Amino acid sequence: MIKLRVDDLLKQYGMSVKQLSKEIGYPYGNLNKIINGSTQQLTFRVIEKMCRYFSCTPNDIIIIYDEYDKSLDEKEIMIKSKINKLNEELAEVIKKKYNNYYDNLDMKPKY
């Protein structure tokens, strides 16, 4: 199942749907339907606008969870999402560090 976390981000930033609508230039009625889950249509354009405004990734806006996750409350789901994001960021940092290390040795691993 897919869940949108836009309402959590709005609370975090102390904003209303109407304010976000103005900031990203997207019609209030359509944005409100997306956030309330009363529409199945969500375009990449809207996701990109929200991500740019909140300085986040789609992973921060869209959560996919399975049957196990249904038993979790919203706070646990948000924490799980943040852990996943931190793991991705850590993997990038490690990758960059090792690439810099091999660049300094003037050689690359064979993989």
Task: Furnish the topology, listing elements before pairings.
Blueprint: E1 2-4, H1 6-13, H2 17-24, H3 28-36, H4 44-54, H5 58-61, E2 62-64, H6 67-70, H7 74-104
Antiparallel strand pairs: 1-2
Helix pairs in contact: 2-3
Question: How would you sum up this structure, described in words?
Answer:
By secondary structure, the chain is mainly alpha-helical. The chain contains 7 helices and 2 strands, in the order βαααααβαα. It has helices at 6-13, 17-24, 28-36, 44-54, 58-61, 67-70, 74-104, and strands spanning 2-4, 62-64. The chain has a two-stranded antiparallel sheet with strand order 1-2. Helix 2 (17-24) packs across helix 3. The longest helix has 31 residues, at 74-104. The protein is globular and about 55 Å long.
Write out key terms for the chains shown.
111 residues, mainly alpha
The residue-averaged pLDDT reads 80
Question: What is the chain-wise order of helices and strands?
Answer: EHHHHHEHH
End-to-end gap: 36 Å
SS summary, helix count: 7
Query: In this structure, how is the largest beta sheet organized?
Result: 2 strands, antiparallel
Rg for CA atoms? 18 Å
Helix content class: 55-70%
* Low-pLDDT segments: none
State which percent range the strand residues make up.
5-15%
Tally of DSSP β-strands: 2
Structural class label: mainly alpha
* Shape label: globular
Give the strand order of the largest sheet, numbering strands 1, 2, ... along the chain: 1-2
